[in-house]
């Protein structure tokens, strides 16, 4: 059995990832964000260069099926920038898709996920390294349940980790009930995103206690608690014995948020957030969160 992280250039040993942005986007477009698409390959390259210059070595892109992943561009960018890239399959919330497109996936969603994890994404041949799905606001609608069941089926077929967008950070326990309870996924193969957007320490501890990974991703936008409560939340989880279950990411989703376009972008994670957390938690723990934890979260015994 070989444990590996599936990057766009092939499987690599987990220890090769180095400092990792565990949740971000190089390309992304959605009808919910008109005119703000991440669609410029040159800007994506510049952003990766800036991230590497700040000390970054790997980026996990959570952009799923149908939202402009540009999978064929990712190997070229990875080689040129010298940064490992992990690509996602999966499906976002229904509002991001045309209803006819969703209807065409009925009855074969898990099959699509498995194909993109094992054979590759379309003619690019790039294999995805995780499945990304999404919950709803304080609950799971029929679309979320459909996509999550398909994601769990794909996990059981391939071993792939499943990363979950929590809407405004909510419904974490509902997600775990479905994936790890009903669908019998091992918790350590589940990554919950955006926990920082709903800073409830009780929910965070309960989720961590399950054995899943908790991703604190994205600098503050409208939710001002995102930044100033993050160090306290991360410290509390670490002190409770869950430091090995924490991940950090940038979650750049619109063009104006890129550092090369004047936003915080990927380098913010290392330029600003890393020293802030190190002052609270110590350099050793923050280094583990940026290196050891993503290496474990995104590595699996591929089937």
UniProtKB/TrEMBL annotation:
The record, for SUPFAM superfamilies, names: Metallo-dependent hydrolases
Protein's name in the database: Phosphotriesterase
Query: What is a single molecular function from GO for this protein?
Result: hydrolase activity
Specify which residues bind Zn(2+) 2 according to the UniProt entry for this protein: 132, 165, 194
Key word 4Fe-4S present in the record? no
Protein family membership: Belongs to the metallo-dependent hydrolases superfamily. Phosphotriesterase family.
Which PROSITE patterns does the annotation name? PHOSPHOTRIESTERASE_2 (PS51347)
Record PTM N6-carboxylysine, positions in chain:
132
What residues bind Zn(2+) 1, as annotated? Answer: 23, 25, 132, 251
Write out the entry's keywords from A to Z: Hydrolase, Metal-binding
Q: Which cofactor does it need?
A: a divalent metal cation
| Cofactor: how bound | Binds 2 divalent metal cations per subunit.
């Amino acid at each position: 059995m070989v444990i590996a992280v599936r990057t766009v250039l092939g499987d690599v040993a987990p220890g090769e990832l180095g400092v990792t942005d565990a949740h971000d986007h190089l390309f992304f477009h959605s009808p919910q964000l008109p005119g703000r698409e991440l669609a410029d390959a040159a800007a994506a390259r510049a952003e990766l260069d800036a991230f590497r210059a700040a000390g970054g070595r790997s980026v996990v892109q959570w952009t799923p099926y149908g939202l402009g992943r540009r999978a064929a561009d990712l190997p070229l960018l990875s080689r040129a920038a010298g940064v490992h890239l992990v690509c996602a399959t999966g499906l976002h919330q229904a509002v991001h898709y045309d209803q006819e497109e969703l209807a065409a996936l009925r009855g074969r969603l898990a099959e699509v996920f498995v194909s993109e994890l094992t054979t590759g994404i379309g003619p690019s041949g790039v294999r995805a390294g995780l499945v990304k799905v999404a919950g709803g606001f304080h609950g799971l609608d029929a679309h979320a349940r459909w996509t999550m069941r398909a994601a769990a089926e794909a996990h059981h077929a391939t071993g792939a980790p499943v990363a979950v967008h929590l809407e405004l950070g909510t419904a974490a326990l509902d997600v775990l009930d479905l994936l790890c309870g009903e669908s019998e996924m091992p918790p350590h193969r589940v990554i919950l995103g955006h926990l920082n957007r709903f800073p409830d320490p009780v929910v965070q501890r309960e989720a961590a206690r399950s054995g899943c990974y908790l991703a604190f991703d994205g600098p503050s936008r409208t939710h001002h608690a995102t930044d100033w409560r993050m160090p306290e939340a991360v410290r509390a989880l670490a002190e409770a014995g869950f430091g090995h279950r924490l991940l950090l990411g940038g979650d750049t989703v619109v063009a104006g948020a890129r550092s090369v376009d004047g936003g915080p972008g990927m380098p913010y994670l290392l330029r600003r957030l890393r020293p802030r957390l190190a002052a609270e938690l110590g350099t050793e723990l923050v280094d583990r969160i940026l290196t050891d934890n993503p290496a474990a979260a995104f590595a699996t015994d591929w089937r």
